[in-house]
Amino acid sequence: MVTPAFLAALRASLGDTPVLVGADERAAYAHDALGVGPLPDVVVRPAHTADVAAVARLCHEHGVPLIVRGAGTGYTGGAVATRGGVVLAMDRLNRIIEIDDVNLLAVVEPNVITADLQRAVEARGLFYPPDPASLEQSSLGGNVAECAGGPRAFKYGVTRRYVLGLEAVLPTGEIVRTGSKAVKNVVGYDLTQLLVGSEGTLAIVTRITLRLIPRPATSITLLATFATIDAAVDAVTALIRHRLVPAAIELVDGESLRAVARHVGQALVPEGCDAALLLEVDGSAAAAAEDAVSAAAACAEAGALSVDRAATEEERQRLWTVRRQLSPALKGPGIAKVNHDVVVPRGRIPQLFAELERLRQRHGLRIAAFGHAGDGNIHVNLLVDERDEAAVARAHVAERELFERVVALEGSISGEHGIGFAKAPYLGIELSPDEIALMQRVKQAFDPKGILNPGKIFPEPTPPARS
Amino acid sequence: MVTPAFLAALRASLGDTPVLVGADERAAYAHDALGVGPLPDVVVRPAHTADVAAVARLCHEHGVPLIVRGAGTGYTGGAVATRGGVVLAMDRLNRIIEIDDVNLLAVVEPNVITADLQRAVEARGLFYPPDPASLEQSSLGGNVAECAGGPRAFKYGVTRRYVLGLEAVLPTGEIVRTGSKAVKNVVGYDLTQLLVGSEGTLAIVTRITLRLIPRPATSITLLATFATIDAAVDAVTALIRHRLVPAAIELVDGESLRAVARHVGQALVPEGCDAALLLEVDGSAAAAAEDAVSAAAACAEAGALSVDRAATEEERQRLWTVRRQLSPALKGPGIAKVNHDVVVPRGRIPQLFAELERLRQRHGLRIAAFGHAGDGNIHVNLLVDERDEAAVARAHVAERELFERVVALEGSISGEHGIGFAKAPYLGIELSPDEIALMQRVKQAFDPKGILNPGKIFPEPTPPARS
Description:
- The structure is a homodimer.
- Chain A has helices at about 5-15, 25, 50-60, 115-120, 140-145, 155, 190-195, 230-240, 255-265, 285-300, 315-325, 325-330, 350-365, 390-410, 425-430, 435-445, and strands spanning about 20, 40-45, 65-70, 85-90, 95-100, 105-110, 125, 165-170, 175-180, 205-210, 215, 220-225, 250-255, 275-285, 305-310, 335-345, 365-370, 375-385.
- In chain A, strands 15-12-14-13-17-18-16 form a seven-stranded antiparallel β-sheet, sandwiched between helices. Chain A has a five-stranded antiparallel β-sheet with strand order 5-6-10-8-9.
- Chain A is globular, with a radius of gyration of 23 Å.
- In chain A, a hairpin with a 4-residue loop joins strand 17 and strand 18.
- Chain A is α+β, with helices and mostly antiparallel strands.
């Protein structure tokens, strides 16, 4: 589909903007964090919205797939050119255009790194809460495309709560603006919220207006350990019953705790501990102190083995080790980690962990689970030796059973990572044929030829090849 | 379009469900709070989702307009049958199905009255924040259709923040479910958020899953008065600079204050006062007390003439009088009140009030303005003698100038009330032709024959007749 005529037209319309076709250059844009994907045919690095519009118009005209790529930290292959075509690498659109501390908003280009914006606004006493684990690498445009969450989502909500407006290029080349700088807007359909979480399949975001909030004055971290997952979940229920709203309630299971201990070379939790809760309470100094006491009491009430409270920033960092070292601890040579971010109503977390135990037993699998207990959003990692084909096959069976159980618990197969191509075969577990057909009609309203990020979200017959 | 054959088919498919065609019965469903609209041809009062689906299928098949009506408290004619057809009166779908205080959510049918849900959840220590002025009459389904706000939106956000999932009937008759009981969900497009604020033009909501939060322990109300609007807005800016987040920051202008004083028969604010701020701070007892002191200091710093703090519930109700009595105070025999809920970035409220002064001078109009200053969302009321045709015409010119100025200030022509048919002629002031065309394609994805709430949101050639 990428013909010499198409390439010539692309180069002619883009002037100085790089159009890369070398194998090495294309290889650099073949994968995201999932690690699977074929080479794109072409990579374009636009410098302006006008470049993006020119590329979209040409791809639409020639029927060439167009895939938008931010920082490539996604877990579901959303930024990968599964059907070849043009990858639009947004890395040059990386300016913070405005931080407005009267109207509490920021205007950014899509490839500003999440943590860079956070540091810039925190220096002015403001706060941009969404904190996906990849925040030092992930781009805000990617966060918008996936509707990224993170630990603080329990109190502060996910990315969509902070997106006031977008500038975006339609796959047919028109530039549209959605929302505004006003915090309320009910003029026509809320296309801003429709684009958030649409995984780069509806439009190409070129500018983002984000709502900010005042930075909390104080934050206190607690680590509570428990003999069982059920006891830890009881503590979460007790917190809710006490009407506490911690900024973060992170749950880590025994398998994960042991992996981190091996990885850092020291025990981090007491003997007999099979679950930990990492809690962060924030607000004014008085409010945070009050909440920390109540949170510790709720954990004790649920039978905590230990409750540690960080008195210094150094201690705070030490307590967060059990959570922050999880991702590297679960990686290993030859270990295929299948990472799913399922979500259930939080009171059903015990049923979810009971299902994980059943899957461990039935399929002989190592499963490590941790995540955002306040939101019922648990990262389930199936850990298998990638050379063991039988184990890989059993993991795939377990995966489908997990998704079916989560939907039966009135939850969802993805809370943060999106569908991409990796979860597309499972979409029908959660959505009915009528619901999928409706979403496909919405897709057509934006992208009549289906050129933008094809093969994502919706099931398709053939899986992509490994490059 | 409503033929005897259609009516017969409707009756046959609905069994005991009332199908009303009497003139009096239809007249009861002709208006909303805007007070303008023709009679529908038929009124159906469904008892179940299956009834709704049956009506939708028949209307789709016969090409009959279908209009969903909640409590009829809307200000833009969204529930009015401007092209005749069937009004679906949702008043029998009024059950609170579930309040779940472990998962902090409620499941309701669409015609539960907003305040009834609030009382039910507050009795259990929970909180449903959205508080439109009509909350004692408005239905949650209507709140979802319009994305209702209210004073507490500054701290707690508007209705969309609380909608986790919906059951809805498509205009073609299929029943779909969007979202889930999980607080995070990124599976496919966020149709939940697309339906919120879609003014009953995309689907018919039959069940709503709402997120709840813990009820704040304490709430403190303050009333500050100022010599000028600019001084009051300076106080708002000072609050923001002090990083305070009151639950409500309501601004009332001099014209409005004088109208309330006439209406209740006593002066409520000091001599020389031309603006007032009604502030509510909430949280734990310690946090609220701390914030009340800071808020009072910020008002004093901005030159407040007076700052009163309610010590008792009775005093609190007295302070709220200036805000709560506004709507009745601005009504009067023969007075046509054109009420617009424009919104600007909050730092630009002074420019908005400067524009109102210009409009008063240029067009010889009485204009009373008040609203949610924290959100920059100001209710602008053009008050004209309805028999004075020249004044009514001048008000219409002023209306358009107001909308143009608001958009130039990077705001929006509606923050809470929606577009309906009343603001449809002005849509093009805020949205480009490409943006309107895109929204119309989204509409077609849901409603290929355009039967659901036709003539709303999008401009059409002929305005509806007065019934």
